Amino acid sequence: MENDVKYRQLCWHSRRGMLELDLVLEPFVTQRYRLLAAEDQARFESLLECEDTELFSYFLGRVVPPDEDNAKIVEQILAFARSRN
Fold it and tell me: Which range of residues forms the domain containing residue 30?
């Protein structure tokens, strides 16, 4: 039960103020999050605390996240997004 509530909260927090971020984050959380190892799930949750402008820069490849954990999950999200195209 608690996991379902947490999952729904993550889905909600993956909806951002920018459509471009929604198109990257929402499919990742709905299709991949539950398949991630616990440490990667924690990385994803931490990444969602970043500002939209930071996330946008990360996903465009303009900036590499300075935090190693964020960099690891961003790479997984980008790999997933590339595999869908």
Answer: 2-84
